[in-house]
Automatic annotation (TrEMBL):
Protein name: TIGR02611 family protein
Keyword Transmembrane helix: yes
InterPro entries noted in UniProt: CHP02611, Uncharacterised_PGPGW_TM
Organism of derivation: Phytohabitans rumicis
Keywords noted in UniProt: Membrane, Transmembrane, Transmembrane helix
Length: 143
């Protein structure tokens, strides 16, 4: 008889099995099912809200939003579908970018940096009523 077990590289980690079993036990009880939905909904909302606040700043704002979407995907099918859509399109974008020449990649990077710079400039301008461009130009003019 042949070995029917999967190789280690194809097997899910043990902790994933434990989490799945725990979630199944919680979902088996009507009160647990409602409590789990409420907990997952609030935890996902908190993470998405923090990520949304961080989007205008340089850093992992979008990654945090996707993490919150991943939390929602534990219990909500619409979040699973949106997360799958996002992953699929991100993979398509990544494959497209990697097929491009270095000059196109550099141009995309520069456009991205200009976009982030404009978002930071606008965020500081709106939040603190401080125009970074004129402040920096004034600083260099006086020194």
């Amino acid at each position: 008889m042949g070995d029917t077990t999967e190789p280690d590289s194809l097997r899910k980690p043990r902790w994933r099995d434990r989490i799945g079993t725990t979630l199944d036990v919680i979902r088996a009880n009507p009160t647990g099912r409602i409590a789990l939905k409420v907990f997952v909904g609030l935890a996902g909302l908190l993470v998405v809200a923090v990520g949304a606040l961080l989007i205008p700043l340089p850093g992992p704002g979008w990654l945090i939003v996707l993490g919150g979407l991943g939390i929602w995907a534990i219990e909500f099918s619409w979040a699973r579908k949106l997360l799958q859509f996002t992953r699929r399109n991100l993979q398509i974008w990544t494959r497209w970018v990697t097929r491009q020449s270095w000059s196109v990649r550099i141009m995309l990077g520069l456009v991205g940096m200009v976009f982030v710079g404009v978002v930071v400039w606008l965020s500081v301008l709106v939040s603190f009523d401080l125009n970074l461009v004129t402040t920096v130009l004034d600083y260099f003019a006086t020194h």
